[in-house]
Amino acid sequence: MQKYYRINISKGKAFIYSIDFHSPIEQIDEIIKDLTRIKFKGIVLFDMLLSEGRKSQDRFFSNDFDGFKFGEKFNIMDIHSFEMINRSHYFYKNHPSFIKNSFIVGKTFKNNLLDILGA
Fold this sequence. Notes:
Elements: E1 5-10, E2 13-18, H1 28-37, E3 42-47, H2 49-52, E4 60-65, E5 75-76, H3 82-93, H4 96-100, H5 107-117
Parallel strand pairs: 2-3
Antiparallel strand pairs: 1-2, 3-4, 4-5
């Protein structure tokens, strides 16, 4: 099965990034398996840039993961979360093909973002 997300672990947090127009939430069971397999426990932060778009109020959200399941509620994060923005820039800078192949973000935004990221 093709995955619609990538997971990066840093400082006790898991960062999950959308990599195309599919929402990673469509594969929440796969995400749970991946997090369980690596024995992760902690906060999981999601960036839905390439599945929800850059202006979506639901671009960033988080939840706690206890090692086997997510908490009951996913929390929308402030779109200006400094930590999440920095992590996202780093991730997409190192994976420019995800942006270039995106159907969600427009051509002008893609080009501007790739210029900003230096990708």
